[in-house]
Design goal:
The complex is a heterodimer of chains A (338) and B (720). In chain A, helix 6 packs across helix 7. Chain A has 338 residues and is α/β, with parallel strands linked by helices. In chain A, strands 1, 2, 3, 4, 5, 6, 7, 8, 9, 10 and 11 form an eleven-stranded mixed beta sheet that branches. In chain A, strand 1, helix 2 and strand 2 form a beta-alpha-beta unit. Chain A is built from 14 helices and eleven strands. Chain A folds into two domains: 157 residues, Periplasmic binding protein-like II (D-Maltodextrin-Binding Protein, domain 2); 136 residues, Periplasmic binding protein-like II (D-Maltodextrin-Binding Protein, domain 2, 3-Layer(aba) Sandwich). Helices cover 42% and strands 17% of the residues of chain A. The longest helix of chain A has 18 residues. With 720 residues, chain B is mainly α. Chain B folds into three domains: 135 residues, no CATH class; 260 residues, MetI-like (MetI-like fold, Orthogonal Bundle); 204 residues, MetI-like fold (Orthogonal Bundle). Chain B contains 32 helices and six strands. In chain B, the strands form three sheets. A two-stranded antiparallel ribbon of chain B has the order 1-2. The chains are: A alpha/beta (338), B mainly alpha (720). At the A-B interface, helix 1, strand 1, helix 2, strand 2 and helix 3 of A face strand 6, helix 24, helix 31 and helix 32 of B.
């Protein structure tokens, strides 16, 4: 009996100092970029400010659902990263806080436009174009260059894309197709593409990881995610589709009623600074930063070289359009036999 | 004597008075924001509770024995009922029913969840209730037993039955928030649940069909493999017996997902085996493993050891004299096996089958990694809650279906297990020779077991090396500790030790939760076992069934039900560590209980009766006589609940938060993101920690001093 208590005491003592590293101030961060970047960014913030960061990485759709579920009593302070559409929707539904950072003047016009669209409830932190990547050891001849090439029967069961219900990446693709082709044509295209899709993943960047290891030949993702794989040595070739493509403005929002509003604003201002925005490249994330004086990593796909559509963020970020498109996707694409 | 008795109950009224007058009534309140202060400040519905506390205190001082005074019972009952009514009647954003707003206009502003004061007041009222009942002859007036029973019933109602009922009610809520039967009917008859399109070639099959097909296949293969293993170990001179027993332990300490990841590394589109085989036959490698084949493979590997343990104990319990008689009468080995051994095994086979079926239905880790487009109920529930749609009604409906399936299987299983255990406890002579297994069956068993062993060794080889090479998925085998460093890096600077590794938070929380929940699970489980085995009280059968029922509830359903029940006041606990601990305590309770019941069945009551005759109370007997005698059961319960808390995923995946993340939830995130090496490295650390902790507990609890009896291993696990 005595020994057992000794043991329990010893365990408690061993665990206590581990809790001691927690600083007085803290910040609950919902992070929707790549895990590695989330880690690097939180670590840099802890080093700089001494504020402890409690970080959860979830895809943007999931984070939006979580913030909505916690609406009664929010547990998070800042939602950092992830495609802009769910951020805009959160702003529209009043889940996030209006905040005009002093840093706004340093930002690129597209980042400020994101803030204006939402009534300053969100702001752009990076941009990236949609595209796809293929595994060059598996696709050796006649490489795909356009969206239409992906319908080819030789890619049967060999293309991966995320599920638009959970992934902002995939919702951007859905909205891009609708804007590029018109709604009915877009769904006809996606239905044809369905024959070549082997799996709709939950996370937006998972398809390119599958392509990198050869579990799939093609992954439809944001181009910077494909570049990330290529820089780690995977045989991935990044493609900007010839028909034109959409893009995301990765965003950041303050969660309304979060437990640590002061720390949240410190993060918000810091995350818009040039030095903080250069951390992404060190964590192998090659988006174009929104701070004008932050260096764009040389590996980042040049937005100027890509045929970009005039993406209507206000319309496709609104709750009604989003819900309608997703419902149609569930009924017409998600329910198809595999 | 009377006066002393009256004073015993003072502890409850004292506790109640302190809780109501001094402790913060609401969650996050300051010290003196008590029910009294809040009540005076406008929340008048708290004042009746103050009156109950004062009344009870007055009664216990003035009356000769408040416990048998009619006013005592009335006050306790009224207090409890009012506590619950006001808590559930007035939520965070105002009254649940409009009438309450008319009665108490201040209720429109709402109230936060229960704080320390409310919790302690509740505990004090439950304690007082036990006193009142014991004084009226419940449990033959045995106070300790009465406290235990009332306490456990209250806890089970709050943490097992209330969440399930709340979840079921969520299934009837329409998207606009109104309550009616229609949404449930629409959801439960949806074609994506019941469609059999995949059989006719006209689309996909529904998730219910998928789950049942997977469950039946998995249970058939796992039972067959378990039987082969058990026959080889119990009835032959097969050389690898020790290896087989060792392998049967592995799945228990294996974190979820790693087996799935290892299967992908071996059999995925670019897996080692797939590519080799495709080369031999000159065909294109395919993604065959994603979907039914992959899940089935992983589940059979995981559940065969469980069925093995069930069948092994059944085989060893068969009295050899029966088989010997058959042989003496001239039967061939095949005839003996067919007419004697097999019929005796049938109940155990059925039990093993149902156990594997329940586990397969409840399994979450394997389908999520290997499922591809093959949806099953557990993953569908997960996506309904964490997906972008956040549809609790849909999740609740699916949970009701899953629960119905597992509880039905569990009900059938307990009947079969009951019958099987009658066979094993006959105390007849064991003298006799075990009949040899017919050669044909022996070779069939070997043919089944050898691939199993090869698979298992291959998979654990991947798990062992995968975390420490550059990228196992691409077969880049340069050794590295980089993944480990990503997870567990730290720095020592002027700010003290700073832990930067991304896995520290989840590791520390996991250790805390496991260390807190294991002794609690053990304590409550053994206490429950003792109540069932040794006490007589009204409602005992219902009590026993209720405690066992929590065994059959799949983890995903528990997780969703906790979200439904504990995300809002009065019991507002999501995002805390307490909810994780509570979740594990009540999920693992039946294991400690079963181990305790089995151990108590071996011990004669006479020792306890002797102790009682000498004047010891119930608590004293339990502490001084029973507990020292059932050390092995205590140890089993402790180890089991500790290890489960470290490896379970299906329930906690819903309950983790940024502050309190758990190891398995972290690993799942890494797997989902394709960071296999990091997931594997973390898993191997977790397995090492588990082995170390189990060894430490073994040392702390000590070896039992009972001599020859061997511990009753309980192979059953709660549905994952």
């Amino acid at each position: 009996m005595t020994r057992r208590f000794t043991l329990i005491g010893a365990t408690a003592l061993a665990l206590l100092p581990m809790g001691a590293f927690a600083q007085d101030k803290e910040l609950v961060l919902y992070c929707s970029v790549d895990e590695e970047w989330c880690r690097a960014q939180s670590e840099a913030f802890v080093r700089e400010t001494g504020i402890n960061v409690l970080m959860t990485r979830k895809s943007s759709g999931e984070t939006f659902a979580q913030i909505k579920a916690e609406e009664g009593q929010p547990r998070g302070d800042v939602w950092w990263g992830g495609t802009g559409d769910p951020h805009l929707q959160a702003a529209q539904e009043g889940l996030t806080e209006e905040y005009r950072s002093a840093m706004l003047s340093e930002l690129q016009p597209w980042a400020v436009a994101q803030a204006e669209t939402s009534g300053y409830k969100t702001v752009g932190i990076y941009a990236g174009a949609l595209g796809f990547g293929y595994n060059s050891t598996m696709v050796t001849e006649n490489p795909p260059a356009c969206w239409n090439d992906l319908l080819d029967a030789r890619f049967a069961d060999d293309i991966q894309v995320a599920n638009p219900n959970s992934s902002g990446t995939s919702y951007t693709m859905l909205a891009t197709m609708v804007q590029l082709m018109g709604e009915d044509e877009a769904f006809a295209y996606l239905a044809k593409l369905h024959a070549n899709i082997n799996q709709y993943t939950k996370s937006g960047s998972a398809p390119i990881r599958a392509a990198a290891t050869g579990e799939s030949a093609v992954g439809i993702v944001f181009m910077h995610d494909a570049v990330t794989q290529a820089t780690t040595g995977a045989p991935i070739v990044t493609v900007a589709p010839c028909e034109g493509t959409g893009y995301e403005v990765g965003s950041m929002s303050l969660i309304k009623g979060g437990p640590n509003p002061e720390a949240a604003k410190i993060w918000y201002d810091w995350a818009l600074s040039a030095s903080a925005q250069e951390i992404g490249a060190t964590a192998k994330s090659f988006q174009v930063p929104s701070n004008g004086s932050a260096a764009t990593p040389p590996e980042a796909p040049k937005l100027a070289d890509i045929k970009l559509i005039d993406y209507d963020f206000a319309k496709y970020g609104s709750s009604e359009v989003r819900a309608a498109l997703l419902a149609r996707w569930d009924a017409e694409i998600g329910a198809l036999p595999k | 004597m009377r006066a002393v008795k009256g004073r015993i109950g003072l502890v409850w009224s004292g506790l109640l008075l302190t809780a109501i007058l001094a402790l913060p009534w609401f969650k996050g309140g300051a010290l003196l924001d008590s029910a009294l202060a809040e009540g005076v400040a406008g929340r008048v519905w708290l004042l009746p509770l103050v009156a109950v506390a004062l009344g009870l205190s007055g009664l216990s001082v003035l009356s000769r024995d408040w416990r048998i005074h009619p006013a005592g019972a009335a006050l306790v009952g009224a207090g409890l009922i009012w506590l619950l009514l006001q808590g559930f009647g007035i939520g965070l954003r105002g009254p649940a029913l409009p009438g309450i707003g008319v009665l108490f206009p201040t209720a429109l502003a709402g109230q936060p969840g229960f704080g320390w004061g409310a919790w302690i007041a509740g505990i004090a009222l439950v304690g007082a209730l036990a006193e009142v009942l014991a004084a009226r002859g419940f449990c033959r007036g045995e106070r300790f037993a009465a406290f235990s029973i009332i306490g456990i019933v209250a806890a089970l109602s709050l943490f097992v039955f209330f969440p399930i009922l709340k979840l079921m009610s969520a299934a009837f809520v329409a998207p606009d928030g109104t309550l009616s039967l229609l949404p449930f009917v629409t959801r439960i008859t949806a074609s994506d649940l019941w469609s059999v399109g995949c059989l006719t070639g006209a689309g996909r099959c529904g998730v219910v069909i998928n789950s049942v097909v997977l469950g039946v296949l998995s249970a058939v293969f796992a039972t067959a493999l378990g039987l082969a293993l058990a026959l080889l170990v119990a009835r032959t001179d097969f050389r690898m017996k020790r290896l087989l027993r060792a392998i049967s332990i592995l799945p228990i300490i294996t974190p979820p997902f790693v087996v799935g990841v290892a299967i992908i590394v071996l059999f995925g589109r670019t897996g080692v085996v797939t590519v080799e085989v495709a080369d031999w036959f000159g065909v294109r490698p395919t993604r065959w493993v994603y979907g039914l084949p992959g899940i089935l493979l992983a589940q059979v590997l995981a559940f065969a050891p469980v069925t093995f343990l069930v069948l092994l104990s059944a085989l060893e319990a068969i009295n050899p004299t029966l088989e010997e008689a058959s042989t003496t009468l001239g039967a061939k080995p095949v005839t003996t096996f067919r007419t004697v051994t097999w019929p005796l095994l049938r109940p155990a086979l059925a039990a093993a089958f149902l156990l594997a079926f329940i586990e397969s239905l409840a399994d979450f880790g394997n389908p999520i990694v290997l499922g591809g487009s093959y949806d099953v109920l557990s993953t569908k529930i997960f996506f309904a809650v964490v997906g972008a749609q956040y549809d609790l009604g849909q999740a609740a409906t699916l949970s009701v279906l899953l629960l119905t399936l597992t509880v039905a299987a569990f009900w059938v299983q307990t009947r079969w297990l009951g019958r099987a255990s009658y066979v094993t406890v006959t105390g007849k002579s064991d003298a006799g020779l075990v009949a040899p297994v017919p050669p044909l069956i022996k070779w069939a068993a070997v043919a089944a077991v050898v691939p199993f062993v090869v698979f298992t060794v291959g998979i654990y080889a991947i798990v062992l090396i995968g975390g420490f090479v550059k990228d196992i998925a691409r077969l880049e085998m340069a050794p590295t500790f980089g993944h480990l460093w990503t997870a567990f890096s730290f720095e020592i600077s002027e700010r003290g030790v700073q832990l930067f590794g991304s896995a520290w938070n989840s590791m520390i929380t996991t250790l805390w939760v496991s260390a807190l929940s294991a002794p609690l699970t053990m304590g409550i489980g053994i206490l429950t076992a003792w109540l069932i085995a040794r006490q007589d009280f009204t409602g005992k059968r219902a009590f026993e069934f209720g405690t066992l029922l929590s065994f059959a509830i799949p983890g995903t359903v528990v997780g969703v039900s906790y979200i439904a029940a504990f995300n809002v006041p009065p019991i507002d606990m999501t995002g805390t560590m307490a909810i994780l601990v509570i979740c594990f305590v009540f999920r693992n309770l039946p294991v400690g209980m079963r181990a305790g019941i089995a151990a108590l069945a071996q011990i004669d009551r006479s020792m306890e009766e002797a102790s009682q005759t000498m004047g010891a109370g119930g608590g004293r007997v339990l502490r001084d006589v029973v507990l020292p005698l059932i050390r092995p059961a205590i140890f089993t319960a402790l180890i089991y609940s500790f290890v489960t808390a470290m490896t379970a995923v299906s329930a906690v995946i819903f309950l983790v938060s940024a502050r309190h993340n758990m190891a398995t939830a972290y690993i799942m995130g890494r797997v989902e993101n394709g960071e296999y090496a990091l997931a594997i490295a973390y898993s191997s650390v977790l397995m090492l920690v588990m082995v170390a902790c189990v060894a430490a507990m073994n040392w702390a609890v000590g070896t039992r001093r009972l001599g020859r009896r061997t511990a009753v291993a309980n192979p059953a696990q709660p549905a994952e």
